[in-house]
Design brief:
The structure holds 2 protein chains of 2 kinds. Chain A is an alpha/beta fold. Chain A is built from 12 helices and 10 strands. The N terminus of chain A is likely disordered. Chain B has 22 helices and 2 strands. Chain B has one domain. The longest helix of chain B is centred in the C-terminal third of the chain and has 35 residues. Chain B has a two-stranded antiparallel sheet. Chain B starts with a helix and ends with a helix. By secondary structure, chain B is mostly helical. In chain B, helix 4 crosses helix 5 and helix 4 runs antiparallel to helix 15. Classes of the chains: A alpha/beta, B mainly alpha.
Chain lengths: ~350, ~500
């Protein structure tokens, strides 16, 4: 998670935004009409993006940066207002969307794997994934497993072999809560490698990936589990050795020399996607409009440069494909959480 | 030299027009709040935090504004000390000693100007110290594992008496209240504690809500009780006559005061009061009979002011590098950092370099702004301080409500804040200090987490807690820090009081 992306400045940018010419607006609207089948829906006035966390975090970043691109591409008539609603790891915002905003066609809510993890583990009390409309994912941050540069583990199989002998021999540090996504990535990898006694594996939860990494680099904890974007600083300085990235194939650019878990014979995947959902009871036209808008955003140069700047990797899904993905991810997290005794 | 380039980048952030504007605003409001008798810098920052949120500021801008408030409050504390013999906050107490006699002799303007220059020197020295020391300490922080952090937090709690304690038992009670509130929410192992299935409580109690409620809302309640609509006593300032020689004369005192203050600030638990106290007493010792201390000696104004401003910047060192606040105000700033998703510590100096160095540069810039604000414009502050609180406090309250609502957009938080306000009112009536509550709330979860981690790593072996040299050192300091203030504290405080008593 990049904590301080420049797009946070868009709040101040409000004043500097030029007043759009009606002609331009008309042209943009016409383009959208041609490019999509949605003839009936056009957002009017203010569009809101709900970030279920405090300013500065990943969801806040998702809202602010997507809002900026939506404005730049004239997919919204005015500006996109980011509203922060922290609480219960997204639960407060989820409850708000389900119970108070049903039918609101101008509301997007930022989501990620943290959302599906909590849904899977029943942490959003009495709520499930069917209660909202899943719009699309616009990028992902892939999971990694890393050790400090002085560690005796040189590749992922070596680390997993140690776990097979004694599940408590390697202690992992990560930025999510116990049972959260960072913890699950370790378990996904360990399960794929054939480690038994998964619940015995030791996981230490820190406030964020940075804090966890500091402990690993400082030699206090054995291994780090987190996302690739978090690790950039320590990777560059050479303090951290990434044993594996949990992606389908090698990542582009500077990351291309990091081996995947798959090529080391451990079939583990851990994409932390960034995307959006909408309230229930919205019209099909409105839903289609936002699905198309996300497709347009994802393909735009503006968004691609936001992704590169912030370490987001290619990952795009929308509409039904995305909804099915979300549901299958929830199912597999639920199964895994049962396996390790996190939930019954 | 890496530091230099970071600092230059920091100036780039601090000198951006909108940041500069908010630094000016912060410095101005800080001086004003610092000058109001009874409203110290911790309250000042706490009251103005919601302003940063309601304006929807970017993290670095919010931090820059509030550090300017912090620095401004330290400057402002001296105004009522000098003019009314009522310290604006505890650290400004020593300034009364020679400041008020100077004002009585018709030299109020000179006393204000000299203290502004001394404050500037103190802050400048300490900020340079911060620039040199913080990156070193940040690297050192890598050697802190869970056991060391646990011992460090223990040290912070053990030295709490130094920050507040008039009555040590009440400080303990306050810290315990803070720790109790800190247990609400989902704990580190995923177990829910005291959440009553209320979603808003899953992540525990938001520090900012607690702080604004305890400090700002309770202040309003106190005002309603006192119905102090009449305003304060009239303050008069003469026309300023200050020569370069006068400034040169106080320079050595200011430099000594600044250095001592910085050292006092860096030590956890010591804080600004101690900084101004030792600066004053040292100055008296050094100059001996050559000065006429207690009767309006300019150096007696300069030394404590340099001392308390030095200490306030010094207190930022442990806060930024280790996440352990050295004073009440830095505790409030720490809460702000955390709520902006910035974790203080070694990583902050690399990951959020623009913010850290922007803030440090802003301290330097803010100091110049404050010097400019405080010499020619001091008359304006004096006049503004005579504004009856019946106009001031409702504005403060309104800002608090708007700010808190804009953080999470739920009314739940507003009710919560009001509840904390009422609690704060009761605590203050019972003379239970508020700062330890905040520290308990802030550090409690961290302390618990680190204890848990240390034991998880050692597979349940308790000896891990004192297995490294660093940890043993911290434990020793904690024990010394716990015992020393109970022995030395009353003596120090009595001497401080005596001197103030004699002077008045």
């Amino acid at each position: 998670m990049i904590l301080f992306p420049s797009p946070a400045r868009t709040i101040n940018g409000k004043t500097t935004m030029p007043i759009r010419m009606p002609l331009k607006l008309f042209a943009a609207a016409a383009l959208t009409l041609v490019s999509s089948m949605a003839m009936a829906f056009e957002p009017q006035g203010k569009v809101e993006c709900l970030a279920p966390a405090d300013p500065g975090g990943g969801w806040d970043f998702t809202c602010r940066s997507i809002g900026k691109v939506l404005e730049d591409l004239h997919l919204v008539p005015r500006n996109v207002q980011t509203i922060n609603m922290a609480g219960a790891g997204g639960g407060v915002a989820y409850a708000h969307t389900v119970s108070k905003r049903a039918g609101d066609e101008q509301l997007l809510v930022a989501a990620s794997t943290a959302t599906t993890t909590r849904l899977a583990q029943g942490q959003f009390h009495g709520m499930n994934a069917d209660m909202v409309n899943w719009i699309g994912a616009v990028g992902a941050d892939y999971g990694i497993i890393a050790v400090s540069k002085d560690s005796k583990y040189r590749d992922l199989p070596a680390l997993m072999d140690a776990l097979k002998k004694d599940p408590r021999s390697v202690k992992f540090a990560g930025g999510s809560a116990k049972g959260g996504w960072d913890h699950l990535k370790v378990l996904i990898a360990a399960k794929a490698a054939g480690v038994e006694k998964l619940p015995r594996i030791s996981y230490l939860s820190y406030n964020n990936g940075g804090e966890a990494m500091t402990q690993v680099v400082g030699g206090h904890v054995d291994a780090f589990t987190g996302d690739i974007s978090e690790a950039q600083g320590f990777m560059k300085s050479g303090d951290l050795r990434v044993l594996a990235v949990l992606s389908e194939k090698r990542l582009p650019g500077d990351f291309s020399d990091i081996p995947t878990a798959r090529e080391q014979g451990i079939d583990a995947l851990g994409p932390n996607w960034r995307g959006f959902y909408m309230p229930a009871d919205v019209s099909d036209e409105a839903k289609q409009y936002w699905i198309d808008a996300m497709d347009t955003v994802y393909d735009s140069e503006e968004w691609q440069s936001v992704m590169t700047r912030n370490g987001l990797m290619p990952f795009h899904m929308s509409a039904d494909e995305f909804e099915n993905f979300v549901k299958s991810q929830i199912q597999s997290i639920e199964d895994l959480s049962k396996d390790i005794g996190l939930i019954r | 030299m890496e530091t230099m380039s970071f600092l230059i980048d920091g100036f780039g952030v601090a000198l951006a027009p909108h940041n500069l504007m908010f630094a000016l605003l912060g410095a101005f409001l800080g001086t004003l709040i610092g000058g109001l008798p009874g409203l110290g810098p911790a309250n000042g920052v706490a009251i103005l935090i919601p302003l940063a949120f309601s304006l929807g500021l970017a993290p670095e801008t919010a931090l820059i504004m509030l550090t300017a408030v912090y620095a401004g409050a330290m400057y402002g504390g001296r105004i009522s000390s000098i003019l009314l013999n009522i310290p604006g906050d505890e650290p400004a107490m020593m300034t009364c000693l020679d400041g008020y006699p100077m004002a009585q002799k018709g030299k109020a303007a000179e006393a204000l100007a000299i203290s502004a220059v001394a404050s500037f020197m103190g802050s400048l020295i300490a900020t340079v110290g911060l620039i040199l020391l913080a990156p070193l300490l940040a690297r050192f922080a890598l050697t802190f594992g869970p056991a060391e952090y646990f011992a460090l937090f223990l040290l912070a709690f053990a030295t709490l008496g130094g920050i507040t304690g008039k009555n040590p038992m009440k400080t303990v009670v306050a810290a315990a209240i803070g720790l109790m509130i800190a247990t609400v929410g989902i704990d580190n192992t995923g177990v829910q504690r005291f959440t009553f299935e209320i979603l808003e409580l899953y992540e525990g109690v938001d520090f900012i809500i607690a702080i604004v409620g305890l400090f700002a809302v309770s202040e309003l309640l106190f005002f309603i009780e006192e119905r102090a609509g009449g305003g304060k006593a009239k303050m008069v300032v003469n026309k300023l006559k200050l020569s370069w020689k006068d400034i040169r004369d106080i320079m050595p005192s200011s430099i000594r005061g600044g250095v001592l203050g910085f050292i006092a600030g860096v030590l956890p638990g010591a804080g600004a009061s101690l900084g101004s106290f030792i600066s004053y007493t040292l100055e008296k010792r050094v100059l001996g009979r050559k000065g006429n201390f207690g009767e309006g000696d300019p150096r007696g104004v300069a030394a404590p002011e340099a001392g308390n401003n030095g200490a306030s910047s010094g207190a930022l060192v442990p806060m930024l590098t280790l996440g352990v606040p050295g004073s009440g105000t830095t505790a409030v700033l720490l809460a702000l950092l955390i709520s902006l998703n910035i974790t203080p510590g070694p990583l902050m100096f690399t990951q959020n370099a623009d913010i850290v160095w922007g803030v440090i540069a802003a301290l330097l810039v803010g100091n110049f702004l404050l010097l400019v604000l405080n010499i020619p414009l001091v008359g304006i502050f004096v006049r503004l301080l005579s504004v009856p609180p019946m106009y001031l406090l409702p504005i403060v309250t309104m800002v608090a409500f708007v700010g808190i609502y804009s953080i999470s957009n739920t009314t739940f938080d507003l009710y919560f804040m009001v509840a904390f306000g009422v609690a704060g009112y009761v605590f203050r009536k019972l003379e239970i200090p508020l700062v330890p509550i905040i520290l308990g709330l802030l550090l409690g979860p961290e302390m618990e987490k680190n204890l848990g981690h240390a034991l998880e790593i050692s597979d349940g072996d308790w000896t891990v807690l004192w297995s490294s040299g660093l940890a043993i050192g911290l434990w020793t300091f904690a024990i010394v820090g716990l015992l020393l203030p109970t022995i030395v504290g009353p003596i120090l405080r009595r001497r401080m009081r005596q001197q103030v008593g004699v002077a008045a």
